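name: query_chain
kind: protein
chains: 1
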Amino acid sequence: MTKPDAPLPTVVGANARRLPGNIGDQRVYGDDGTLVIHAGSPIDSAVVSAHRPTIVVVDGVRWKLLRHHKAGTKDLYTLSPWEPGPFEREGLVVEYDPDRVHHARVEQLSLTLRTVLMFALLPVAPLLGSLPEATKQWLRVRGLLPPASQASSLAVEWLLMYALAGAAIASFVAGSFALWIAFGAAVLVVGIDIPYRITLLAEARDVGMLAWPREFIRTMRERSAFNDDRPSLPPPSPPSPPA
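structure:
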């Protein structure tokens, strides 16, 4: 085996140091054919079994897990080549990923970044909730859509409807019938949009503000295109004269 005070050969060090805080793994191949993995964090499901041995697959080679113990901040896994006899069967098979520490670190930093961005975007959550459904789906996949965006957007839309209704009443009292008709039409549009959005929430659709006019126009265009593509029937032939 390699001497304890000798520097360990770093196998994935170039990947492990790509981000700050990565400890990385080191693999030491002994002269007796054993493999010792100095893991920066525990390997998932790699537990020594008293019955059927746990198999760890490293670079496509199957190794039997012999021992696992802690050495300071490292988890040491001692493995030997898996050469089963005619009646030996393996137990749990674990695929070893040398970049798992780096991947975990990337996910941790990504989660931290998404959390910071989510709190930073809370003041504009109502505005984000008013965006079209496809845009919000793009933001949600990237973790940039606050969970309260749809509810806050609906609350702002309720307030907008009340403000438009007040403006319509004030216009009517002032005798400005043109403004009264304009504000009344806006109240009608927003009043239809709110229950429409709430109804689609039950269908797991997170539509934005004023979605129903766009849906209505698109439906009418699709119906018109369908009618234009339908083959026209020939005119009926005149009845033949009686014999």
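note: DSSP finds seven helices and six strands in the chain.
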